[in-house]
């Protein structure tokens, strides 16, 4: 059997067509044209906006004119990931900008051969097309929003202008578990800090070593911040702070990596007064034991060591090193507040992700997340305050809105009831402490009642991506039933 013959037939048919059209992020013109041509063929109103999103409008079905307009939303792009040995039909390395995805049925799932499948978010797109093409489904007015370039920074959602959408209920189709309804996400703001210092000549006769933090688990700074893992940058500066000015001078720091990753490793080069060296080594070993105890059950292979290092030419003046270490110890990090509406969900957090010195300046970066804008802003104000106390410059950039769970949302009530009526059980209501398009769309459309659902997709963004076939049929029935029972205007 072919993928296009699976049920629901229309949905899988559109999905199979999409697989033949290359559409990795930033190469979306062809898939955009495909949607535009589809809309025109079905006599539907279609526009492409400045953000390169496609909006297709379909009037209410007969007898459904009293229903509220529903915005259905899915993103057009896919993540291009192929196995190293994947070749195209001509035997050349697979090229996502030219070659067709090869979907195939594998037991109860659909996968691609050697590449990402694009079920994220192709199934959502295909479901929207099936609804737009249908003459049977009973639905109110539909605005179908096909967003551009979600996977590399949600560019389409950021490009959406106030007033483009008339609907005030939005159903996003980009979730990855069929039995879940997602009702919230976090927004974010980057803090970019610069701590200037005038390096001085390293003192003669001191012993040069490095202090290294290793073995931490790290992880995604949104999803995994709830684990309360150790932050390597914080561990390092906490270790050094009591010794700066006591016989230890800081030469350089380098910790963490990506702004959205909890730092796993950090390293400082220092020089130590010979008579203080034994004290310092004992203190670092003691700190390692303290950390192992403090993070028992969270981190199981913390390593904090003094290791040999080349002698540095220059060091931080002690006064500057102290200010820097105090700043790093003071700057907020980790979970700030848990959600009351949804127990177990982090509402606000911040990750002190990166610090690196270059002899003139220490560059540092934090990423703060929250589903509540005011809380995010206050955490940023605290980071600014710490920087001002320490004489560091700071710039806040890349701010985007979150989506705070509203447990009394009308579309949540409709969909939870619809799910129970169809499947005889309650859906799980969830939210994520990471960015979703809904947060950004809600930011330019205040008061938008939003929800997110989807089929069950495993291993998205990898060549193992697979979508469960039965979940697609359930997702489809659920979506149709939701439209049929949608709230009135
Ligand atoms: Zn997606």
Helix content: 25-40%
**CATH hierarchy, class of the largest domain:** Alpha Beta
What is the arithmetic mean of pLDDT?
96
Number of helices in the DSSP assignment: 11
How far apart are the first and last residues' alpha carbons, in Å?
43 Å
Please name the defining characteristics of this protein.
489 residues, alpha+beta, Aminopeptidase, Alpha-Beta Plaits, 2 domains, nine-stranded antiparallel β-sheet, six-stranded mixed β-sheet, 11 helices, elongated, binds zinc ion
Describe this structure in words.
The protein is α+β, with helices and mostly antiparallel strands and 489 residues long. The protein folds into 2 domains: 3-185 and 403-484, Aminopeptidase (3-Layer(aba) Sandwich), CATH 3.40.630; 188-400, Alpha-Beta Plaits, CATH 3.30.70. The protein is built from 11 helices and 23 strands. Strands 9, 11, 12, 13, 14, 16, 17, 18 and 19 form a 9-stranded antiparallel sheet that branches. Helix 7 (318-330) runs antiparallel to helix 8 (373-390). The longest helix is centred in the middle third of the chain and has 18 residues, at 277-294. It binds zinc ion. Zinc ion binds next to helix 3.
